[in-house]
Design brief:
Elements lengths: L4 E6 L6 E6 L7 H13 L1 H30 L6 H19 L3 H50 L10 H5 L1
Antiparallel strand pairs: 1-2
Length: 167
């Protein structure tokens, strides 16, 4: 009744029975528990700083990967100067990640995050230029079609099937 797990099995063929009980270990003395809680409270600020550093490192790795992928996928849409500048920031972030200086990682992360907007601006500018060029080529054709349709005679008619009326 005091065990954590109690298991028993009986072989019906031979009639042999086995049982096993797993019990909890001895509990910790109260002074050990208080000491552990006190140590945890003393190191709470240190633990928080370590957690924040780990989160920044994870975000930095994710950002560098996604920006490299963005550069690779949109290579033809990006000007060389923007691409080189952002790639330099990615390389600086990777160098900072290889080291142990968390402040350098945060600074490089912030710089890359800011330069990421230049990629977006360049991609959207390229897309708008392509769209404007495509729309300019289609406008004269649309104008010709409109002129041709206004010259035609349009007749409004209704089809009546005589066989349906006879039934």
């Amino acid at each position: 009744a005091n065990g954590i797990v109690h298991v028993s099995a009986k072989d019906k063929g031979t009639g042999k029975e086995q049982s096993m009980t797993i019990t909890g270990g001895s509990s910790l003395p109260k002074d050990d528990i208080e000491r552990m809680v006190r140590e945890a409270e003393e190191h709470a600020a240190e633990d928080k700083k370590r957690r924040e550093a780990a989160e920044i490192r994870n975000q930095a790795e994710t950002l560098s990967y996604s920006i490299e992928k963005l550069i690779k996928d949109n290579d033809d849409k990006l000007p060389a100067d923007v691409k080189a500048e952002v790639q330099g920031d990615v390389d600086a972030l990777k160098t900072a990640l290889a080291g142990d200086n968390d402040d350098a990682v945060k600074d490089a992360f912030d710089k890359l995050n800011a330069s990421q907007t230049k990629l977006g601006e360049a991609i959207y500018a390229s897309a708008q230029a392509d769209q404007a060029a495509g729309a300019g080529a289609q406008e004269p054709a649309a104008g010709d079609a409109g002129a041709a349709s206004s010259e035609e005679d349009v007749v409004d008619a209704e089809v009546v099937d005589d066989e349906d009326e006879k039934k």
